[in-house]
Write a sequence for this structure.
């Protein structure tokens, strides 16, 4: 493997990958819109060089969506590859061991923001596409490949979702198969096919009390405290056993089948492995439910952050006049994104403390969860190919994470989804020191060289 890593570091694949990682394409931050445009332009030029017809599409002030096509000829089967070039903010910067947008190789891993999520995953697949096309000696061997790379997945895919409302755009992304390389493999890089994803909502809750922060001595016992009020509201979302305590939130849930539960358990890490990974006991969620149920099949309401009062050194004796909470909910099949959001709003509004006002804003996501049938012919094909790559064979996973726009792309394109990715827990996505190993990159590339000719009947 050491020689293979050395060869890869000398290759065009790694050179171009490092260039891609150098763009600070934080799609959620308007101040990085220029960086996103430059990143999208770089991707457009890369795709043009391999023979694709490419355009940059925009909706409102969202980062551009890269839309490309390699036409395989009339009547050719078609695939749609989805990925995203936007990345999470690199904060907190002081926890990075190297600059987040200067790719750094340590051992066999490339460290940078976006190294895995999702630049490394989709770009490795594109490198595999290029290699396969070169090996065939013709454009793309009778398979039409359509590509959509967006710059806003980490913040709700607002621009792409708007484009998908347009009938002409939907025709451009129509396909037989939807390929997504933005998920994880099982432990030790055993291949995994994602048979379901949770949906997602995220929004902001603002609680306001007095007209200003107040002196806690002069006004203590008189003025309502927004920090205390927000703490009470957030605590009300769950019962003592961790179960969601919001009336109506869980309405309509479609429980997993016994076959799905058994298949999910086969690829699920143990409680000990989770504890080692996260550094504490994996005791979140509802007590008495297995990790398989809590991670892949149960919905969640998570508090992503609470911001209020004073948090600097020493003390500042104030009664905060305002508190802000960032929330996300993960949804399972049967739940309505809109109705579940309304249930949380109603729950918190009814419990708004006396003397305070509550407001909701920045509602994004609105994506439903989905599960795919295990008996799918596409899954059988993928299992056979992945077994050729790894004699251990593939496991099925019902991913607790979300790729909100996949449901919309699935509906707009008419394509059957196939989600196979190569992430690992040690990649630390969304955290400082994100990385992607050379081994993972090469696996993702190999997957492309196997699945594309198979879907094209070659």
């Amino acid at each position: 493997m050491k020689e293979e890593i050395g060869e890869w570091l000398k290759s065009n694949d790694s050179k171009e990958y490092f260039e891609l990682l150098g763009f600070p394409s934080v799609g959620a931050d308007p101040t990085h819109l220029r960086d996103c445009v430059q990143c999208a332009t770089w991707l457009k030029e890369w795709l043009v060089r391999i023979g694709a017809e490419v355009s940059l599409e925009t909706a409102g002030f969202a980062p551009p969506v890269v839309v490309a096509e390699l036409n395989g000829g009339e009547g050719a089967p078609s695939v749609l590859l989805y990925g995203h070039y936007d990345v999470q903010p690199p904060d907190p910067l002081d926890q990075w061991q190297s600059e987040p947008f200067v790719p750094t190789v340590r051992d066999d891993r490339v460290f940078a923001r976006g190294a895995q999520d999702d630049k490394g995953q989709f770009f490795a697949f594109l490198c595999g596409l290029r290699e396969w096309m070169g090996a065939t000696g013709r454009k793309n061997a009778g398979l039409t490949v359509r590509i959509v790379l967006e710059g806003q997945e980490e913040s709700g895919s607002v621009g792409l979702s708007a484009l998908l409302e347009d009938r002409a755009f939907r025709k451009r992304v129509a396909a037989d198969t939807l390929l997504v390389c933005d998920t994880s493999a099982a432990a030790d890089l055993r291949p995994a096919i994602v048979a379901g994803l949770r949906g997602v909502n995220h929004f902001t809750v603002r609680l306001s009390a007095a007209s200003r922060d107040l002196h806690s001595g002069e006004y203590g016992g008189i003025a309502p405290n927004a920090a205390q009020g927000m703490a009470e509201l957030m605590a009300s979302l769950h019962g003592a056993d961790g179960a969601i305590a919001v009336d109506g939130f869980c309405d309509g849930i479609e429980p997993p089948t016994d076959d799905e539960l058994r298949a999910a358990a086969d690829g699920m890490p143990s409680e000990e492995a989770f504890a080692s990974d996260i550094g504490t006991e994996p005791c979140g969620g509802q007590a008495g439910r297995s990790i398989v149920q809590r991670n892949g099949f149960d919905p969640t309401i998570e508090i992503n952050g609470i911001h209020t009062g004073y948090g600097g050194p020493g003390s500042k004796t104030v009664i905060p006049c305002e508190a802000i909470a960032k929330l996300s909910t993960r949804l399972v099949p049967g739940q309505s994104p809109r109705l579940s959001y309304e249930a949380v709003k109603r729950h918190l509004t009814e419990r708004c403390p006396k003397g305070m006002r509550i407001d909701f804003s920045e509602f994004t996501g609105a994506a439903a969860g989905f599960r795919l049938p295990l008996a799918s012919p596409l899954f059988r094909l993928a299992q056979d190919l992945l077994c050729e790559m790894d004699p251990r064979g593939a496991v099925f996973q019902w991913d607790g994470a979300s790729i909100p726009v996949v449901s919309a792309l699935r509906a707009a394109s008419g394509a059957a989804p196939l989600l196979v990715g190569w992430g690992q827990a040690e990649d630390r996505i969304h955290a400082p020191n994100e990385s992607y190993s050379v081994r993972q990159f090469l696996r993702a590339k190999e997957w492309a060289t196997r699945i594309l000719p198979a879907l094209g009947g070659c």
